[in-house]
Amino acid sequence: MNRLSPLIAILLVLVTAGCVHRATGRATAPAPSILRVGITPDARPMAFRENGEIRGLEADLARGLARAMGKQVRFVELAWPDEIPALTSGRIDIIMSAMSVTRDRSMLVDFTDPYMVTGQIALVRLGEYNRYSNGFTDLLRPNIRIGTVRGTTGDAFIVRHIARARPVRFRDVEQGVRALAEKKIDVFVYDLPMNLYYGALYAGRGLTPVLVPMTREKLAWGVRHGDNELREKANSYLAGIRKSGELEKMIEHWVPFYKNLHDAR
After folding, report:
1. Whole-model pTM?
2. Buried b / exposed e along 162-179 (16+ C-beta atoms within 10 A)
3. Are residues 40 and 168 in the same domain?
4. Would you give the DSSP letter of residue 31?
């Protein structure tokens, strides 16, 4: 996902596993014992709020990284467009929010080693699955109403590769999925983990994912340019949980069908 816009402030909430702080317009010196994690909790199953707690794969990884560093995690809840500005201005230490590695982003932040391979897939209505079962090529037909989330890599993919498409842009994934269920759009293009999750959640309302990735993207965490110490510690943590098999278990806990996608590794 990717969006850049002016900075805004969000919520101030205390959660059981760490503090979620309101983002402010100026940086403050972090406590040495705190890891300030920028997160946008609107993308199940990667990062979301439930019963007052930040949950999801990214939240579990953030807590694990903080423990490995001997620190406490402090979640700083941000709107997605504000993640990179908050990092570059020093208001957070690291972005852990299902961010795809792109060339443009690499000009603004340093990325850790990737922890997951993903891509864009389509979510469709079950009764129309055969129309879209081939993935990208089926979206090239005229008069298909394609939805996505504004400013994400899915949005950029549609604009770049489907010349005649005029995507219907939504503010978040839940709004887009509801529009698909209500037949306001024909296809919803979004990140693989989220469309798998919402395909399962909305199965009773007749939605299903098309398991043909249209892109291949790597998810990683962003740190400030030159923060080699944090980057190396994050990479060391990742290497450890990858070697032990813990990373794979964590991914498959939150994204159950991930292991069945032969192109997802």
Report:
1. 0.76
2. beebebbbbeebbebbeb
3. no
4. P
